[in-house]
Amino acid sequence: MTETALRLSRGIFRILLPILAITQVSAEPFEETRAPAEREIPIEPNGAVADAGWALGRLNKGGCMANASFVYPETTTPVRLYLIDTGVSDAGTWFAQNKNLKSFRSELVRGGNDPQFSTVVAHGTQMLSLIAGPETGAALGTPIHVVNYNIYPGTSPTTTSGRLADAIDRAIGDHAANPALRSVICIAHGSSYPGAQTGILEGAIQEAVDAGITVVVSAGNEGGNASSYIPGAYGTRSGIVCVGASDLNNGILPSSNTGPAVDLFAPGQDVRTLKLSNPQPGSYDFASGTSPASALTAAAALIQLSINPTLTPAQVEEALTTKAAPSVILSQTAPAELLVQVLPDPETDSDLDGVNDILENFFGSNSANAAIKPVPMAIARVSGQARLSFNVASDLFNPATPYVLADGSTWKVWMSDNLTDWQDATTTGALSPGTAANGVIPMTFSVPNAASKVFLRIDVTLPPSAP
Q1: What three-state secondary structure class fits 115?
Q2: Whole-model pTM?
Q3: Nearest-angstrom CA–CA distance, 122 and 125
Q4: Which of 103, 292, 362, 407 has CB atoms 3.0–4.6 Å from 287's, for a disulfide?
Q5: Residues carrying an active site annotation
Q6: Rounded distance between C-alpha atoms, residue 194 and residue 117, angstroms
Q7: pLDDT tens digit string along 143-171?
Q8: Domain extent listing, the chain
């Protein structure tokens, strides 16, 4: 008699897809108390429309270059995003499909001579789509209240450091009036003028951190030292997370700023976003640069705060760094380059098909499609041996270390004759890989056994850094 079993040490986690109440407020001019020279430093979005769609998969498995699936954690504590950017278009009812977007409010931040309207919406819409948009958002499982401070009045694609500082002041005031929600400020743009430091902006960002708001800023797209550009230069301060852009090969995107001010890297080359002109399932635009990288990192920060609302900004930064994955390609300019990770609950069953995502990934199945389940294992007696046949995902298996997977997970085959006492069968058994096809490698595991009955099971153990 032979039987097989699968076991993980943790249970089932369900993913809920997330109403977005759209309101637009044209605010009165903010009191101009800033120094004129500091108020007029040009600021522009960090990102350009390009092509591809790999980034979310890399957030789940930083070192797995072939991974294209993404599983997000489902969290329960509401959090708030201050998106300081262009305006945001609701793209019809697209964002409303995410039921975890609990509210949306937009305010136009303008100086005394600025227009009372704004038509600039593309960049902010893309950034929100990367944080919480259907199909492209990294924090789809997290209840988020969004406040959009539009600092691009009129039709110009550039803004100023003064408007940015004004928007941060508004976020601080709003946070003080609603302290129950833990908050993240996302600033996915910056100055392309080196040396343009402004104490006013630095003070506003530091005040936000002191008020308990985590601040995520983009490093900038000049291919230089982030310390020379605002707001990336302030990344050396605790609780201010400065984000550089990584490329498809986990190296540094050539245009990304680097240096000691950069805390983390995140996908920034050809990152899939909402297609504003055609918001439909499967229809995408693509963004490159440190803008999408910072938006994805802001999503990861929101997830951390929803999991643990007691975290300070400094602790959020530490949590992101601790969970980050080392890049595949290290550079001289960033020898400790780390890639932001959004780690799903280890027992998530994303498609609710009754099979854990970890096992679906191990067997090379599709954890996002309930109609696709792993090919069943088969067991047989052959010449005094118990022989187990099964598939392993080809992007995880490494012949050089067959029981250590590419994502750092380990696995073993265990054997028992009574379902009580188990022994590690990998110490006496032999593993024979077949030829890879369709994303899987057929495996045969044979172990000597002459008992009247035998039970075999496969255990998959997550790497130590996994939650």
Answers
A1: coil
A2: 0.69
A3: 5
A4: 292
A5: 85, 123, 291
A6: 30
A7: 999 999 999 999 999 999 999 999 999 99
A8: 24-339, 351-461
